[in-house]
Amino acid sequence: MDYTKLGKNPDQEAMVQAKRNWDAIAKPLNGLGKLEELFVRIAGIQGSADVRIKKRAVLVFCGDNGVTKQGVTQTDSHVTALVADNIAEGKASVNRMCSRCNTDVFAIDVGIADPVYSQHIIRERIADGTKDFTVEPAMSAKQAEQAIQTGIRMVKRFYDEGYTILATGEMGIGNTTTSSAVAASLLGMDAETVTGRGAGLSTEGLLRKKTVIANALTKYGFDGWETSDAFEVLCTVGGFDIAAIAGAFIGGAMYGVPIVIDGLISVVGALVASRLCPASREVMIPSHMSKEPCTVKIMEELKLSPIIHGELALGEGTGAALLFPMLDMAEAVYRNDETFVKLAIPAYQSYEE
User: Which of 99, 87, 14 minimizes the C-alpha distance to 49?
Assistant: First the structure.
């Protein structure tokens, strides 16, 4: 499917009004810095200066990756099902964190190899995980399309249920390997530069991971230059979770829903989405800068500047969830009616170039 024409431009009038609202409040201009910018951005996405962030959720896309057979992870793929089950049951790290900031969490099975027994998981399973991309392409074009459409459909589902802002999360052993391979291919970078330790590899394990990625890039002709065909890269070395996350950003562009980016896997999904559907960039809300090496480069391409620099590597959408309490506090100021006019004091003047 051609996604290039989907989505819409931000509402400029809403953005102008949101900026006026900030500037009218009795405080220094741009006093909340990037938080003010995010509110203006969200106003443009939602088409209203009456920014709505109260009903929100983290969508955790879960899937296995065949490349784990190459020993690129500290744990085996069985852990994916166990953690996905925990997320669905409300027991994982992301659930604990989201319980403190009134954020719902939904686990979505897009390709977990082992059974997940929770009745609360959303079942959108495409296959028993992807193929081992060192041997053959990770997925077929049909499967990649199915995963993207799943992401779009999930955004529509929760938009129809009244959710006004969503965050992307993931769970899948081996997905920092697939993400690094996709990033290297799309950015024209080598495996040495883009690949990090993921969930905590030893030095020997990291070297093996870099070698696996480098060999795959050579095998498929993705090494040495920036590859333009994001869909081909996704099919060849990607994962179902990355594809579904890309679909979520495209869905955000279609339905006017801000989508918060989490860590490496999420930001790679955002990169894929931006190549498939340029309008999807407009709905991307940055949260934190992952410690994985290629994250900075991707954020630069997306022209986004994350607020949180905590060297996080937990995944599940936890970094994205950290942004919500900050947005809540910013909203308390944004809705403050103590304006310069009401207090009868001179407004600050802007002298910035």
Answer: 14
